[in-house]
Amino acid sequence: MNIIKTDGNDKVLELTLSVLVFQQGDFYVAYCPSLELSSYGETVQDAKEAFDEAMNSYIEDCHANGTLQQDLVQHGWKLNIMNQAHAEPPPMINLDIPSGLLRTQYNETRRVAVC
């Protein structure tokens, strides 16, 4: 589930993004296909915590540079020019995760100030 909502004043976006956690060798990878953002750890929990840090860095960087909307478009999101707080996520991609290696899938939600 990939969703972007506004607070009604178009000053805050709420992003809800799907994150997949799968095993790759001795590590676990947390991956958000709609942002091409990933992290890893020695356990599922480590991967989730590392993803949380990566997501925080991504949001901080986009906010500091005023590039969130541009970055979303580069990742295949479709933005409504008349309503900048509305965005349609890119189509889901077919990931080649071997059977049995997907450990969990969860939604990550963040509130982001719009520059």
Q: How is this structure best described in words?
A:
- With 115 residues, this protein is α+β, with helices and mostly antiparallel strands.
- It has one domain (3-113).
- It is built from 2 helices and 7 strands.
- Strands 1, 2, 3, 4 and 7 form a 5-stranded antiparallel β-sheet that branches. A two-stranded antiparallel sheet has the order 5-6.
- A hairpin with a 4-residue loop joins strand 3 (27-32) and strand 4.
- It is globular and about 40 Å long.
- The chain starts with a strand and ends with a strand.
- The model has no long low-confidence stretch (mean pLDDT 78).
The domain tally reads 1
The topology string of helices and strands comes to EEEEHHEEE
> How would you classify the quaternary structure?
single chain
Q: How many DSSP E strands?
A: 7
**Low-confidence parts:** none
Shape, per Cα inertia axes: globular
Distance between the termini: 25 Å
* Helix share bin: 25-40%
The Cα radius of gyration reads 15 Å
Mean model confidence by pLDDT = 78
Strand content: 35-45%
Structural category is alpha+beta
Which SSEs are present, and which pair or pack?
Blueprint lengths: L2 E4 L5 E13 L2 E6 L4 E5 L2 H22 L2 H7 L3 E2 L7 E2 L13 E12 L2
Antiparallel strand pairs: 1-2, 2-3, 2-7, 3-4, 5-6
Structural key phrases:
115 residues; alpha+beta; 5-stranded antiparallel sheet; two-stranded antiparallel ribbon
Describe the structure concisely:
The chain is an alpha+beta fold and 115 residues long. It has helices at 44-65, 68-74, and strands at 3-6, 12-24, 27-32, 37-41, 78-79, 87-88, 102-113. It has 2 helices and 7 strands.
